[in-house]
Specification:
With 281 residues, the chain is of the alpha/beta class. The protein is built from nine helices and nine strands. Helix 5 packs across helix 6. The two termini are 34 Å apart.
């Protein structure tokens, strides 16, 4: 079984009026898709094989928070070269037709790859799951089956989902977008995928990492169709202490603790993001 790249937040969404998903819009050139990595994987494995790692670590007492230990790198290299059966993994992704129904569609001149699995429940809720960066559609593979099966909510109502997992532009099998493309552009394309291509009148959405930012854009710009959204993170920063004081907002001890943690992360925990935004690495 293929392993997910990231752990998935448990979804708890409001019930929506559900519309079955049908690949009926030929104008968007919806096509069945089969994964074929045969042209790229051998070269990648050769690059790994040709990579020379030092015999001894330069910093033997390094902590995990300070970098990757040499033994970890050697173990990963060995796993890639001697243990990974990429053809078996590829076959698994291609043959799970009951869950991993791969398709591509052309929207605004972009080719978008997506996985589409429909529940047997005619009242299932359409659900868009968007991965983050770095990541891929594989983040959600292990939850697709469960989401398409009926489960009881706290009110006792049975709910299931029709699951759609697209690949962000430039990731996996979706084509790269133009240089001025934004997450809001991708949100618009994914909205078209759900409504015009798959025929959903309303749908729910969830996203991880910058997929959460995209999901927020969907809920903000297309809220007549995106009727519920779940966020493992909020795509905006907390008010700074000066702003809170100016608004005369009094925080409880718990809120003060949470705000201090948010400020620490804002000023000390986003350096990597800043480097990636401001410098070519």
């Amino acid at each position: 079984m293929a392993s997910p790249l990231f752990s998935i937040a448990v979804l708890s969404l409001l019930c929506l009026q559900a519309v079955a998903l049908n690949l009926t819009n030929e104008a968007f050139n919806v096509r069945s898709f089969t994964i074929d990595l045969s042209a790229g994987v051998p070269r990648m494995l050769k690059l790994i094989y040709d990579t020379e790692l030092p015999e001894k670590p330069q910093y033997p007492n390094i902590r995990a928070s300070e970098g990757v230990h040499l033994d970890v790198l050697k173990g990963l290299r060995e796993e890639w070269l001697d243990q990974l059966d990429w053809e078996k993994e590829q076959t698994y992704l291609n043959t799970r037709r009951d869950s991993f129904n791969h398709s591509t569609v052309t929207i605004e001149s972009q080719t978008i790859h997506f996985v589409h699995h429909v529940s047997q429940d005619p009242d299932a809720i359409p659900l868009l799951l968007t991965h983050g960066w770095p990541g891929s559609f594989m983040e959600f593979l292990l939850v697709i089956d469960s989401l398409t099966q009926n489960a009881n909510t706290s009110t006792g109502k049975a709910v299931s989902f029709n699951v759609v997992v697209p690949s962000l532009p430039g990731i996996a099998f979706s084509t790269s977008a133009p240089g001025d493309w934004t997450l809001e552009d991708t949100a618009r394309v994914f909205s078209t995928l759900m409504t015009d291509v798959l025929g959903c009148k309303t749908f729910a959405a969830h996203g991880t990492s910058n997929g959460a930012v995209l999901t927020f854009s969907l809920y903000d710009k297309f809220n007549t169709t995106t009727r519920a959204a779940h966020f493992p993170l909020l795509p905006f920063y907390s008010s700074i202490p000066e702003e809170i004081a100016a608004l005369e907002i009094e925080l409880s001890p718990l809120e003060q603790f949470e705000h201090e943690r948010a400020m620490d992360w804002t000023f000390n925990g986003t350096s990597h993001s800043s480097v990636q935004i401001l410098r070519v690495s």
